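Researcher: For the annotation table, I need structure tokens for Transmembrane protein 242. Please keep the output clean. Sequence:
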Amino acid sequence: MVLNEVTLVTTTKQTISERDEKRKNFLFEKLFPVVYFSFITTVGVLSGFGYAFVATKKREQVPDNEAEAAALLNNERVYRDGNRLALRALTRATIYSLTGVIGFSSFLWFMSGAKNFQEFRYWMGSWLPKISSKNQNQERTEFKNLTELIQYIIDEDEKKKQQKKLLQKQEQS
């Protein structure tokens, strides 16, 4: 009976620690990135809206006399014409670029004779040059925090300085 109680207590502690670990993983891997990107998106939307609001307020100025009214009317016409021209240019550029990319990709797809994307990828890989990764395992790519990254950069810089000093000593000898 005592053995069962001890087992129950240890399994309960394990399940509690597992739950705590899952909770931490959820917070750090899922929740914080969502909150961060939501904050960035909100700031972007609000700043864009604020900029548009201020620009509209500036555009709707009330003129003091007839000369200012005529100048303001002329500016509005030029602004509207320029706006239309830019919108037309952007629309045409979008249509041309999408048509070109889709057409070129379709041409390559039909030339390859592939039945699915996997075959097409292998066919393109056989035509394209191979990219070799030099010194793949010699450099670190993941760091726990910013301090560790900065320390790694400092250490690498010191190594390079030492190598340069050795080369200079060898050249002088």
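Researcher: And a one-line annotation?
Model: The chain is about 85% helix and 0% strand.
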